[in-house]
Every structure is written in structure tokens, then in C-alpha cells.
Design brief:
This is IstB like protein, possible transposase. By secondary structure, the protein is of the alpha/beta class. The protein has one domain (about 5-185): P-loop containing nucleotide triphosphate hydrolases (Rossmann fold). It is about 45% helix and about 15% strand. A five-stranded parallel β-sheet has the order 2-3-4-1-5. The longest helix has 14 residues, at about 55-70. It is globular and about 45 Å long.
């Protein structure tokens, strides 16, 4: 069982009360995310923070709630996404694959910057973000400050273009601190709900 499936299987044990106080400070804003109102305005969400602060937990929780509300949603690791785009480019059907990813109402890209991204790969990522610009919402989790994206993406120009489409006009940037309790700490707790809404697992 991979880490994402374990997170999904245990999300019924997780809510903001189980998180560090610094994360709970965002309770009202994240509760608002759970209403999916950000989708109506094609707004994006960026979760920034060190490993273990809860970025992936929160993004998966929002994704599950989106699915419950009938929103077409995809959760994918950034490295896997780039590999798929590169493969499509090599097989000369990049345009078709791009259209498929652009159709998702909510695209969640996990761990941008965790692994190195080449200049060519960053251009593929830009093409995708640009295709969704002002049409669909995207959630990104990253441990890289926005000011360092040029280094991670191996291109300052591409990083600025991505940030222009993703962050500057239609976004919520959440900088998480502190430490998320481990899943194991929840197993013997009452079956709380995520954001007081999520009551099922996928």
C-alpha cells in the first residue's frame, strides 16, 4: 500500500483539531476550501511548507471532498505528471494528453520541487498550467518558497511565467509551519471528520 492510499484510508481519522496549532490557524480558510467555492472563480491553492506539516493531507482531503461533490478531480505526484508529459511528447501525442489534464475541474499536483526539474520539463509544466489558466483550478503542494522556483525549475523565465498564471491573480498561498501528528496517533481516537464534512473514504 503506497503512502497516498494510506493517507486516504485514514482521512476519516483526520481533522484540523488533530493538527499543530499553526495549521489550525487556517481553519476558517480551509473550511471555505471544502465548500469548493474557489472552483467557481477558477482560483488556485498553493500549500508551502517543510515535509511533515500536512500539505499532502490537506490537498487529499480537499480532493476527496471535491469528489464527493461531483467535481472531476485528479491527484498526481509532480514527478509522475512530468514523466507522463515527457512520454507523451516523445510519442508525439502531447497535445491530446494536455487536453485530458486540462479538462479536470480540479488538478492536485503534489510535491513540486521534491525532485529536480529540467528546463524542458518546466516548459511542459508551464504548458499545462497555461492551458488551465482562468479556466480550471489547480492545487500545488511544495516545500520550495515561491522565490526559489526559478532554481527548482531550472529557468527563471519559466518560473515567472508559471507563477504569473498560477499565483499572482487567482490564488490562495498557504504557508504551513509546525508538525503534523502521525497517522498512527489517530487510530484510537473517535472517528472525527475532515473539516467536519468528510465521513467516507475512497
Amino acid at each position: 500500500m503506497n503512502q497516498y492510499q494510506r493517507l486516504i484510508d485514514n482521512l476519516t481519522k483526520l481533522n484540523l483539531n488533530n493538527m499543530a496549532a499553526s495549521i489550525a490557524d487556517y481553519r476558517q480558510q480551509i473550511d471555505e476550501f471544502a465548500t469548493m467555492s474557489f472552483l467557481d472563480n477558477q482560483e488556485n491553492i498553493i500549500f508551502i511548507g517543510s515535509p511533515g506539516v500536512g500539505k499532502t493531507h490537506l490537498s487529499i482531503g480537499i480532493g476527496i471532498e471535491a469528489c464527493r461533490q461531483g467535481v472531476r478531480t485528479l491527484f498526481i505526484n509532480c514527478h509522475e505528471l512530468i514523466l507522463r508529459l515527457k512520454s507523451a511528447q516523445e510519442k508525439q501525442h502531447l497535445e491530446r494528453v494536455m487536453r485530458r489534464y486540462e479538462r479536470y475541474d480540479l488538478l492536485i499536483i503534489d510535491e513540486l520541487g521534491y525532485l529536480p526539474i529540467s528546463a524542458n520539463e518546466s516548459k511542459l509544466l508551464f504548458q499545462l498550467i497555461n492551458g488551465r489558466y482562468e479556466r480550471k483550478s489547480t492545487i500545488i503542494t511544495t516545500n520550495v518558497p515561491l522565490s526559489s522556483w526559478g532554481t527548482v525549475l531550472n529557468s527563471t523565465a519559466t518560473a515567472e511565467a508559471i507563477l504569473d498564471r498560477l499565483v499572482y491573480y487567482h490564488s490562495h498561498v498557504i504557508k504551513l509551519k509546525g508538525k503534523l501528528y502521525s497517522i498512527g496517533q489517530f487510530l484510537n481516537r473517535p472517528n472525527h471528520t475532515f473539516l467536519n464534512r468528510h465521513k467516507t473514504t475512497i
